[in-house]
Structure formats: structure tokens, C-alpha cells
Amino acid sequence: MTTPDPDVRSRELATEALAAGDPTGWFERLYAEAEDGTAVVPWDRGGPQRFLVAWAEEHGLAGPGRAMVVGSGLGDDAEFIAGFGYDTVAFDVSASAVAAARRRFPDSSVRYLAADLFDPPAEWHHAFDLVVESLTVQALPNSLRSGAIAQVGRLVAAGGRLLVIAAGRAAADEPQEGPPWPLTRAEIDSFAADGLEPVRIEELRSPGALRWRAEFHRPQS
């Protein structure tokens, strides 16, 4: 069976979900279709995100500590983080994605959970020494963007770090048809809220397209 173009299919599903007033519902549909072989997850590269890997090599990454991976998908980033000794939790709004990650890594120490970024468990508040947000916020429409950014930041514990990886666009550029909907510099800067402070914000190219890689820190209280 021939599967549709991954980007085209994800945009079809997102458009349908937005029209139905369920802007995150398309994630479950996409992962469910991927499970039965009728779609491909366009951001799945079969390994951890390369800008995450490079960041770990360049700036150091070592546990022990608690780590959270936001929008964990099929689990590659979470497994990478856990390999540094972190007690790792990874969540996704799609139950099919969570089930697929558990099947892929049956002996993993990572706790894969289905959860909603907009209604996280209370015990996650300021609870993680490392939070990784890679390509998730950019998959949300503008109406949800600021709320998602705020919720991500609230996961970071005192003394903890947040790493954000996202597609980028200049503020003067028209938003493209998405998903993804690339983030502006102002949106990246807005992660520095709720006591978080920027450490470094990098403009990267992949290839030719703008990518953000930004690190934030919450000082010890």
C-alpha cells in the first residue's frame, strides 16, 4: 500500500482537527494511521533529534536528576536522555504514540505516559531538572502557542534547565501553511517567563532553513 506524503497527510489531519475544534486531536489520528501502515510520522527520523545530540555533546549532559521530554512521540529523544542517567518521564497527547514507544523499547527505564500539556499532573509543576521541548510547540496553531509555552516552562525545577528546539521564521515573514508553524524569535524569548532565564539562543541552519536551539535556566530559589 502506498502511503500519502507525510507532510501532506499531517496537514490534512491538522486542518480537519482545527475545523472540528480539536486542535490537538490530529496527533492521535496520525500515530494511529502510522501504526496500521497508512501514514508516516513526518518528524520521525529513527533516532534522537540531531540538534539535541549536538547540544549534549557541546554543552554537557549528565544525570542524576529528573528529566521530562515533552511530546515524546516514538521515544528516541527520551531514550537518549535516559542514557545519561536521568530518571526520565516522557509524555505525549497521543495514546498510540505512547503505546508505540513502549513497544519499541520494552526494557526501557523511561516512563512513557499519555498526558495533555494543557492539563498536566499537579506533581509535575517545577519538578524536573531537565526539560526537553523538541518540535512540539511548533506543531500547535497560534491560538494555543502562548499557553503551551507557559506550560512547558512550569515543568522546570529550581536549578533546572529547559532546552527548546524548533523551526524558525523571521517576524516579518508570513506564517506558512502548517503544521509545522515555525516560531519567531519573540516566541522563543517568551519561554523566559515564570522565573526562567535565557542561557543561550542559537540560530541554526538545516539546510538553509532557520532552526532555533534555546537553553533556559531556573535559578535556585
Q: Quick one: overall form?
A: globular
The overall pLDDT average reads 92
CATH architecture: 3-Layer(aba) Sandwich
Low confidence ranges:
none
In the CATH hierarchy, the third-tier topology is known as Rossmann fold
What is the CATH H-level superfamily? Vaccinia Virus protein VP39
- CATH level 1 class label: Alpha Beta
Helix content: 25-40%
Describe the structure in brief.
The protein has 221 residues and is of the alpha/beta class. It has helices spanning 6-19, 25-35, 50-59, 76-82, 95-104, 142-153, 185-189; strands at residues 66-70, 87-92, 111-114, 128-134, 156-167, 197-205, 210-217. The chain has a seven-stranded mixed sheet.
List keywords for this structure.
7-stranded mixed sheet; globular; alpha/beta; single chain; 221 residues; Rossmann fold
Task: Describe the secondary-structure layout.
Elements: H1 6-19, H2 25-35, H3 50-59, E1 66-70, H4 76-82, E2 87-92, H5 95-104, E3 111-114, E4 128-134, H6 142-153, E5 156-167, H7 185-189, E6 197-205, E7 210-217
Parallel strand pairs: 1-2, 1-4, 2-3, 4-5
Antiparallel strand pairs: 5-7, 6-7
Describe this structure in words.
There is one protein chain. This protein is of the alpha/beta class and 221 residues long. It has one domain (44-217): Rossmann fold (3-Layer(aba) Sandwich), CATH 3.40.50. The chain is built from seven helices and seven strands; from the N terminus they run αααβαβαββαβαββ. It has helices spanning 6-19, 25-35, 50-59, 76-82, 95-104, 142-153, 185-189, and strands spanning 66-70, 87-92, 111-114, 128-134, 156-167, 197-205, 210-217. Strands 3-2-1-4-5-7-6 form a seven-stranded mixed sheet. A hairpin with a 4-residue loop joins strand 6 (197-205) and strand 7. The N and C termini lie far apart (56 Å). The model has no long low-confidence stretch (mean pLDDT 92).
